[in-house]
Design goal:
With about 350 residues, the chain is of the alpha/beta class. It has a single domain, classed as Metal-dependent hydrolases (TIM Barrel), CATH 3.20.20.140. It is about 40% helix and about 15% strand. The strands form 3 sheets. It has a 6-stranded parallel beta sheet. Strands 1-11-12-13-14 form a 5-stranded antiparallel beta sheet, with no helix packed on it. Helix 2 packs parallel to helix 3, helix 4 packs parallel to helix 5 and helix 8 crosses helix 9. The chain is globular. Bound molecules: zinc ion (ZN).
Length: about 350
């Protein structure tokens, strides 16, 4: 078997695609909160809609080139909120990748920022956009904002996509979120979440990002909740993410097998079921977890979405990859100059 359905990245930040190569922060962060303050919260504040567009185009292109046809995105751009989710959806559609977008609501920029974030979720979803309601994290939101976001999601018949206990700063999240969560919620990271947390929803595991942020190993096998795999914005190569998820689990449990992490990868199809109908033809045979876990450099040759060839022999058919890379470089230079 050399074909599989399209891969799903269950937690992405397409806005961070242009972060690579950004200038070093003024101070070296010494904690997870420091990494947020010195890097990600400076970056997201500097984004405008043109940067978001090319960041999403490049991220979607790289997803397609990795055999990923579905992205669950979590977006924030506090100075370019209105319309941002449509810009992301449009970029993904142009490249030929499916997306579930949301805007991460937060009180970091005062109650008006939170209100505008909620409104962007409402606007996008009620205009027919595919996605969820987003919350940044419990520790950057007032309780009232968490409750409003949960109510909006219920009203619109979607789930909530939220960062949960990614670092120790968010350890009170269970108290703030319990009673609000539902099975349709997506709980990203959960590194510092206790085993008996009682929260409902799918837990999203991002092993490379967690290592990079020095927050520890989430060990998602300890939870009863379903688990799915994401990248947290570091590309969308899910075969690579699966390999890392497997060896990370193996590093704490010598009895772990590739089947567990492969099951986490397959759970992505519950989040974007249409990706099951997509077809990826890979450079390797057989595409079996026990082979893939130990075979680096597997790459997609052809990708079909809705029966349409969107990648042929590694080359996208709908867009010009060289042009997207050139435009993304231009926008990255603008973005980095603002930091
Ligand atoms: Zn994230």
């Amino acid at each position: 078997m050399t074909t599989t359905p399209g891969m799903v990245c269950a937690h992405h930040h397409l806005y961070s695609t242009l972060a690579r190569g950004m200038p070093a922060p003024p101070e070296t962060p010494t904690s997870f909160l420091g990494i947020l303050e010195q890097i990600w919260w400076r970056l997201d504040t500097a984004l405008d809609l043109e940067m978001i567009r090319w960041s999403a185009m490049l991220g979607a292109l790289e997803a397609l080139e990795s055999g990923t046809t579905g992205i669950v995105d979590h977006h924030e751009s506090p100075n370019a909120i209105e319309g941002s989710l449509s810009v992301i959806e449009e970029a993904c559609r142009e490249v030929g990748v499916r997306v579930r977008a949301c805007y991460g609501v937060t009180d970091r920029h005062g109650p008006d920022g939170a209100r505008r974030g909620l409104e962007e979720n409402r606007r996008y979803l009620s205009e027919g956009g595919s996605g969820m309601v987003g919350i940044h994290a419990a520790f950057t939101c007032e309780q009232g904002t968490l409750e409003e976001a949960a109510a909006l999601a219920r009203e619109l018949g979607v789930g909530v996509h939220v960062h949960v206990a990614e670092g120790p700063e968010d350890e009170d999240c269970v108290r703030h979120l319990s009673g609000l969560t539902e099975d349709s919620w997506l709980l990203a990271h959960c590194v510092h979440l206790p085993d008996d947390h009682g929260l409902r929803g799918t837990i999203l595991h991002q092993p490379r990002s967690n290592l990079n942020n020095s927050v520890g190993y989430a060990n998602p096998a300890r939870f009863d909740n379903p688990v799915a795999l994401g990248t947290d914005g570091i590309g969308a190569n899910m075969i690579d993410t699966f390999r890392l998820a497997y060896v990370m689990q193996r590093s704490v449990d010598v009895t772990a097998t590739p089947d567990t992490a492969w099951g986490w990868l397959e759970n992505g199809w519950d989040l974007i079921p249409e990706a099951r109908n997509d077809r990826v033809t890979w450079s390797y045979d057989p595409m079996d977890p026990w082979h893939i876990a130990f075979t680096p450099s597997i790459r997609p040759l052809d990708v079909e979405v809705e029966g349409e060839a969107v990648l042929k022999e590694g080359v996208p058919t709908r867009v010009d990859a060289a042009e997207i890379r050139a435009k993304a470089r231009e926008q990255a230079a603008r973005l980095h100059a603002r930091l």
